Structure formats: C-alpha cells, structure tokens
Known about the structure:
By secondary structure, the protein is an alpha+beta fold. It has 17 helices and 20 strands. The strands form six sheets. Strands 7, 8, 9, 12, 17 and 18 form a six-stranded mixed beta sheet that branches. α4 (48-57) runs antiparallel to α5, α5 packs across α6 and α13 (257-265) packs antiparallel against α14. The chain is globular, with a radius of gyration of 24 Å. The protein starts with 12 loop residues before the first helix and ends with a strand.
Amino acid sequence: MTRLAERPRPTRVALFVTCLGDVFYPEVGEATVRLRRVADWLDARLQVGGAVRETLEHPVAGKAIEDECAACHMPIARYTAKLAGHLGTVFDHFPLQVNQDRNAADGVSCSVCHQITAENLGAPESFNGQFTVAAPAKDPKSVRTEYGPFEIDPGLMQIMRSSTDGYQPAHADHIRSSELCASCHTLFTKALAPDGTVVGSLPEQVPYQEWQHSDYREQRSCQSCHMPAVRGTAPISRVLGSPREGVARHEFVAANFMMQRVFSHHADELAATAPPADYAAAADRTITYLQSQAAKVAEDEPRLLNGRLQGQITVENLGGHKLPTAFPSRRAWLHISVRDVAHRVIFESGALNPDGSIQGNANDVDPARFEPHYSQISEPDQVQIYESILQGVDGSVTTGLLSAVRYVKDNRLLPHGFDKATATADIAVHGDALSDPAFTDHGHRLKYSVAVGAAAGPFEVEVELLYQPIGYRWTKNLQPFDAHEVARFIRYFNDAGAASATVLAKSVASSR
C-alpha cells in the first residue's frame, strides 16, 4: 500500500503553471497545462462505463474495484480516503464539481509523480499503483520532498519552496526512469467469481515488461518517447530558471485520440475545464505522433498468376512495446483493397464501417467468435487484426476484465528485439501467431492471393494499417448493463462512429 504519514499535500497544477507553463509547452502555452490537469480524467470519466460494468457483474467486490481504479486515476482523492481509513471511491465524485472537489478534479497532479520515491520501482510491489511516497518528518513545520531531474542551486531553494507550497526540491535520477512509469502503467487484474472469490489473474497492461524484453531497453526510456526533450537548452522555470539540457516536454503524448475528441465534443457535459479547441488540438497531435512514430507498412510488387493477384505485405512496429499495447480494447488491422485498370474495387478486406465496426470481423458480429491470426488473406471476410482477445474461466470470449483469466489470442505487433520464444507468460504471444515464422520482432509478413475474375490490369493494391483505441465489441458488450455512465459512454462511441479509428500507415503498389 502507498505509504503516506499524513494528509497528502498535492501541489495544484495551477501553481506549476505559474512557474512552468510556457517552458514545458512553448507551442500552446498555458492552455495545454489546463488540458493536462484533466487528462487523467479522460479514462476515469469515460471508461468509467467499463468500471460500472465490473461493479455490476461483481457487486460483492464493488468497493474494492473502485479503490483499485482510483489508485492510478484519482490518486490524491484515493490517498486522502486511505488516510481516513476508507477505500477510494470513483462514482461518489460524479457529477464532478471541479471547484468543490479539486482533489478528484486534478486527477494525477504534478506532485503525484514528482513525490514518488525510488523504493521498489520496477519490482512487482510497485505495480498496480503501489508506489511509495516519502513521508515528511514528524515536525509539523517540515516539508515534503519533491523530486526532479536537475541539481538545484542552493541559493534558489527558498524561493522554490515558497512557490510550490512548501515542497523541498531534490535531484533524483529515478524521475527519468521507465520504472517510475511502470508503477501505474503495469496492471495485473484478479478474475472474480460471482461471490467475489478470486479464480485467476490476468496481465492486463504490461507495456513496461514488453519494453524490457525489447532492444529499446538499452536505447530509450518511456519518457524519451512520451515526454520528448526540448532541443538544445531551455530554462526549467519562468522565474530564475537556468538553461538546462534535456528539459522534458510534459505532453504525455500517447494513443487515445478518441477520448480527446470526445472531450472536445462533449466538454460541457463532462465538466471539462479546458476549451474544446484544446482537446481537439491534443487529438490532432496524438494522431500526428502515431502516424510518424508507431508503424510502417510496405509491399512487394503484386504479380498475376493463374487468375489470382498475389503479393506480400510487411507490417513493422516502430515503438518500444507491442502495438497496440496496454488496455486490451485497442486494436490495429489491415485494410486491403485491390483496384483494376478502371480504378474499380475488385477486392476488399478490413474496411471500416460507419458505426466503427470492421467489415468481415467475426467478433464485431458475434461476441463469441473472433478473427484468427492469418498468414495469407484470400477472401473478403478474412481480416488481419492485431489484437488481444480475452477468455474467461469457462473458456468463453469476454471483454470483462474481472472475468478474464487468459489471452486466447495475442498477435499484437512485436517491438524490435522481442523474442517470442523466450517471452515470459505475462507478455507471451498467443494463438496462431506463436507458430507463424513470418511473425517476428522485425514485423509481420502477410501474403495475399485474390481472384481477379474478368477484371483487367494493371492492378493497384492499397494497404492501410488502421488503429482504434476502443474496439467496437468492447462498447457493444456494455449494452446489457443499465446505468447512466454506460449509456453515456455508448452514446459517445456511437457519435464517433468511423472517427473512432485512424490510419497509422499506408502503402500502395501496382502490378506490371
């Protein structure tokens, strides 16, 4: 359990804006800082529909479920409750009153991450949000330590303490480590029977362990991608800030553009404190980041043989963990289309429907089925989807996180250096991809062979790698649960439709 000796004293984001705003966000300034203050409510308020489902399915464990969610998504409010001898809650804070419930509204404030000590980081004891925060001395006038990556000029110590509500700044290298991120971004969930009995467990989100098993472990940290450094030197504060090398932009760019768009479109309903335009701009930056950093698609030259157009597609993951990674609702897939000399589509696999489902995907039609991992695509109803599919104790396919005990399929694209033969159980490849020699850390080589009939060439083959943060089935499976939060979440997804997905990479090749 996170140890705090007294009531937490989280520094409000507004205090950091005063000193740091345009330094960490030179392009958009203070508005992005306001956006980041509520960023962790993205999941807590919108994916709360999933949390409602879990509490309805497992009512005996409802309070414990809320407490675990709050550990990472609402740490300040949760720690305050813990110190008072209570479990952390989520639903009690809705509808959110930003000015009256600031501990909850701040989500993950600046001082949460910057108070985490090096104790147990990277060890299982720190996962699921179980990091350690250093307690102050018993002297009531004592201050809390707040860690940063730079040495502090002793002459500036007093003014820094006064400008951050009495925190004691200290240099610590662990603030730049991937292990710090892993404390909240590693999540093992316990599967529960209806009576609350634990019947299994699931490595729900393990991007840190995937990174450890890749070449990136020796090359880049989490922060180097998701908190990119300012080029050259930059002052670390507006007030008396000395120019430093390696100042990190606190952008936390990641992959959930859909939630950012939802906040842009439903800002009033969600009590957002940043202008809708800021959320829209954040979504655009997320997509730009994904399209430049996530993946690459390439094709061999298509060839016509015995009335069939044949070729090979190579999909490569450019990141330091699986693609997609973390929350298992995320999926990427190939949209393959073939056009004849008149530009008519004569074959198509994996088209995105207006409602956010994938044409031909068995799981979007039937919750009990799913697409296997393919080594060759020959028919329109064969769709190559890179995803994780959960399985319950009874062997059924599920999207219930507290019902799942294993992955029946996990063919998410591997990072460079990831050896699937030596991967531990927590990060293993599952399903047909495990035995596919064309599925490696260098990418997936997928063949296609499609009948062209009477169509005339030359033929053009277009391949898109699409990505969707929340798969269609994950939303559809919420419909039986009668709750306001669930209905709202479903409405948001339905409103998004095809905009719930985006193209990560694209390739076009023509036959002779």
